[in-house]
């Protein structure tokens, strides 16, 4: 591919459109080595000046993030984290519901087995609560495919229940509890019950009864359920993976209903995603 052809491909990705660029994605897949540095630079550009990126009506970051995730590109891991570490209004405007729907997969697929940057994102109180929740969920993805790391992730998550890691009303606590449920919460019950007693976990996000139900399952069943659920979140077919987003007029990717307690956590997320999606569409319409 010549340099002008590559630039034209990137230009097409950058245009706001309701049409999914299937042919262009196929071209990017065929030119992975050539296009990867350019996709990473898109994320770096966004992170350096998100306001300008928004005002200039760019859209290349959506394709960049998803293609780099599909490529499982380790060099994209930190740029992705920087590109999602934005102020709330910029986060909604640029990423919409990708924060809750897709960020866990983006982080997992680009981390190359290392959880350190993801952990740092989780403990960063300056970062949006939904980004932190997505990062926590990404740790469960690591365990889904490498159960030997389960204790490491559980120890880390348990250590976050200090009451100081987020505001009392934050969804951070409910998501943290749901993640421990996905990993099987039996060894975390004392910490979780105290969190409910302290009033930092919203019963509307996930109820204590749901936690207890999760604890009653055997570990093997819990791990199999987690692997199944995570697999539905990252379909192997890149077109299924990309084209279901709200801005594209393609068939939605429909995953099987997740098992409790993830269903309770997802119910809360869906409310917030609807708000994010509406906000994103409104901003795009106003720009036009």
Characteristics of this structure?
288 residues; mainly alpha; 67% helix; disordered C terminus
Helix content: 55-70%
Radius of gyration: 19 Å
Number of strands: 0
Largest sheet: none
**Average pLDDT for all residues:** 86
Poorly predicted tracts of residues: 249-261, 267-288
The SS-based structural class is mainly alpha
> Which oligomeric form is depicted?
single chain
End-to-end Cα distance, whole Å, is: 32 Å
| H and E order | HHHHHHHHHHHHHHHHHH
What does this protein look like?
The protein has about 290 residues and is an all-alpha fold. The chain has one domain. It has 18 helices and no strands. It has helices spanning about 5-15, 20-30, 30-50, 50-55, 60-70, 75-85, 90-95, 100, 105-110, 115-120, 130-145, 150-160, 170-180, 190-195, 210-215, 220-235, 240-245, 260-285. The protein is globular and about 60 Å long. Residues about 250-260 and about 265-288 have low confidence and may be disordered.
């Amino acid at each position: 591919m010549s340099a002008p052809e590559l630039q034209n491909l990137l230009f097409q990705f950058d245009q706001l459109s309701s049409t999914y660029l299937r042919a262009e994605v196929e071209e990017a897949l065929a030119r992975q080595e050539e296009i990867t540095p350019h996709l990473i630079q898109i994320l770096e550009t966004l992170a350096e000046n998100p306001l300008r990126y928004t005002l200039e009506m760019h859209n290349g970051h959506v394709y960049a993030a998803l293609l780099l995730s599909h490529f499982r590109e380790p060099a994209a891991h930190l740029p992705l984290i920087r590109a999602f570490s934005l102020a709330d209004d910029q986060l909604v405007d640029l990423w919409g519901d990708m924060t809750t729907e897709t960020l866990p997969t983006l982080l997992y697929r680009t981390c190359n087995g290392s959880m350190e940057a993801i952990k740092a994102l989780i403990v960063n109180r300056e970062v949006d609560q939904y980004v932190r929740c997505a990062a926590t969920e990404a740790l469960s993805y690591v365990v889904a495919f490498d159960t030997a790391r389960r204790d490491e992730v559980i120890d880390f998550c348990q250590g976050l229940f200090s009451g100081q890691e987020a505001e009392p009303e934050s969804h951070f606590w409910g998501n943290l509890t749901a993640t421990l449920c996905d990993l099987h919460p039996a060894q975390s019950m004392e910490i979780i019950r105290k969190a409910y007693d302290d009033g930092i976990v919203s019963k509307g996000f996930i109820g204590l009864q749901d936690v207890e139900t999760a604890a009653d399952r055997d570990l093997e069943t819990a791990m199999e359920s987690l692997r199944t659920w995570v697999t539905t979140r990252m379909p192997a077919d890149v077109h299924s993976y990309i084209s279901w987003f709200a801005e594209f007029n393609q068939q939605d990717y429909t995953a099987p209903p997740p098992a409790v307690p993830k269903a309770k956590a997802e119910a809360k997320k869906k409310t917030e995603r609807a708000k994010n999606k509406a906000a994103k569409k409104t901003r795009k319409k106003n720009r036009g």
